[in-house]
Automatic annotation (TrEMBL):
Acidic residues composition bias: residue spans: 436-445
Entry keywords, A to Z: CBS domain
Top-level taxonomy: Bacteria, Bacillati, Actinomycetota, Actinomycetes, Micrococcales
Lineage top rank: taxon: Bacteria
Protein name as annotated: Mg/Co/Ni transporter MgtE / CBS domain
Transmembrane segments: none
PROSITE patterns, alphabetized: CBS
Region of interest (Disordered), residue spans: 413-445
Organism of origin: Brachybacterium nesterenkovii
GO cellular component labels: membrane
Gene3D superfamilies, per database record: CBS-domain, MgtE N-terminal domain-like
GO terms assigned for molecular function: magnesium ion transmembrane transporter activity
Pfam families attached to this UniProt entry: CBS, MgtE_N, SH3_actinomycetes
CBS domain sequence ranges: 287-355, 356-416
Length: 445
């Protein structure tokens, strides 16, 4: 291997990985270690490739490790990385771990670790860069500005590195994941053990945890919510999209569900209860009760400001619903909708009621999933309003809600994702659902 004979793990994190032609293939996120009697050796690296997917790179495939680059031979296997029971992650498991110095001088925290290449070409964990634990009131602590001194030690100078002591700081681990989207962070939550999952959840803000829960399989999110303190769980439910919160509450044991609903803000709980009244595979069960709603006199500029909010998904931001008062669901009569592209073509001061598309396509809350998909496919829509018999807006179904119900229930847990060529054809999905419905009718007959 043509490279320097030592590298530090924390410094390597984020380093670009290149193939033999010099093309970037991903970034290093961690080093996989295999402990043994004398220490640990590196067996590979966790590399994040485009799409935020984390894959395993065997150490034998690495031809060079230098400052700012890791060069590999061949191509990466894109199977999602899964840590084996006998393996440890240098950053994920060992960084910030507390160790005890064998000279009796106290405890220290691991801030980095060095791996050296031996004469056999193996990378062995050789040195630890540690920081002594602060001793209250000591002169040295005061000189260090309240922080302990740092030093580099060999593995035999400390104990507890691979022991069963307290886990590393969850806050530090989350800091390495702060740039991840909720779906990618949710994938990581599925890979770690339940105890670790709860430690990370405790460090997340309510809205961030809500986003992650929406991306987890049913059994995992039920396990997490029931393990949280009831008050925290209720706060997190309030931050979730009402339709996702309703789906989650329905999955919980009855006693837990009712207790959490009682702890939620009355308005938020009422939205969830309203959605729970509908079957999951109907427009009412899939809709959000918080679409973008404005009065007809609202200027175009205000509507554009509403759809530009960062927290809105593209599907929710695609459509503004123009209604009579009240402007919270269930609203007054729905006058029509305006798509964001139409807003971009109009004067900022023009009232949105003058450009409303009154020839709208709306659904009853009892409309079945195959009716929703057919309507979206026929008119090339990404959002559909849901109205009651009096024409009052109850909510809106978006294409992402539909896909969540069309895909297999365990799609988030599948390691191998199918290769998709071209775009998803909703009309084909609708056709197949109609065929399934016909088959079901035939069986019942």
């Amino acid at each position: 291997m043509n490279s320097s004979s030592r590298f530090y793990v924390a410094r390597l994190a984020g380093t670009s990985v290149f193939d033999p032609l010099g093309d970037p293939v991903g970034r290093v996120r961690d080093v996989v270690l295999s402990p043994h009697a004398r220490g640990a050796r590196a067996v590979g690296m966790v590399v994040e490739v485009p799409g935020k997917r984390r894959v395993f790179l065997p150490i034998t495939r690495i031809t060079s490790i230098d400052a700012g680059q890791v060069i590999i031979s061949g191509i990466l296997n894109v199977r999602r990385f899964e840590k084996r029971s006998a393996e440890l992650l240098a950053i994920g498991d060992l960084l910030d771990r507390t160790v005890t110095l064998t000279d009796g001088s106290g405890e220290a925290t691991v801030e980095d670790m060095a791996l050296d290449e031996n004469r056999h070409g193996d990378w062995e964990l050789s040195k630890l860069y540690i920081r002594r634990r602060k001793r209250s009131g000591s002169s040295l602590a005061k000189l260090m500005g309240g922080r302990g001194e740092t030093l580099t030690v060999s593995l035999d100078e400390v104990t507890g590195l691979f022991g069963t002591q307290a886990e590393q700081s969850a806050a530090l681990l989350l800091a390495s994941y702060e740039d991840l989207k909720p779906a990618d962070l949710g994938e990581i939550f599925q890979e770690i053990d339940p105890k670790r999952r709860l430690e990370l959840a405790a460090e997340l803000s309510d809205d961030r945890l809500a986003d992650v829960l929406e991306e987890l399989p049913e059994d995992t999110r039920v396990e997490m919510v029931t393990a949280l303190e009831a008050a925290r769980a209720a706060d997190v439910l309030e931050e979730m999209n009402p339709d996702d919160a309703a789906d989650l509450v329905q999955e919980l044991p009855e006693g837990v569900a009712q207790r959490l609903l009682a702890l939620m803000e009355p308005e938020e709980a009422e939205d969830v209860r309203r959605l729970m009244a509908y079957d999951e595979y109907t427009a009412g069960g899939m809709m959000t009760t918080e679409p973008l709603i404005v009065a007809p006199e609202t200027p175009v500029a205000h509507c554009l400001a509403m759809i530009s909010r960062e927290e809105l998904s593209p599907a929710h931001a695609s459509t503004v619903h123009v209604c009579r008062s009240p402007l919270e669901t269930p609203t007054g009569r729905l006058l029509g909708i305006v798509h964001f592209q139409h807003l971009l073509r109009e004067r900022p001061d023009r009232p949105v009621g003058e450009i409303v598309d009154s020839d709208r396509h709306d659904l009853a809350p009892t409309a079945l999933l195959h009716d929703v998909t057919r309507e979206m496919a026929t008119y090339n829509l990404v959002s559909l309003p849901v109205c009651d018999a009096e024409g009052r807006l109850l909510g809106a179904v978006t294409v992402d809600d539909v896909l969540d119900h069309v895909l297999p229930e365990d799609w988030r847990e599948q390691d191998e994702q199918p290769t998709i060529t071209g775009q998803i054809d909703l009309s084909e999905i609708a056709r197949r659902m109609d065929e399934d419905s016909s088959d079901d009718d035939a069986r019942e007959g």
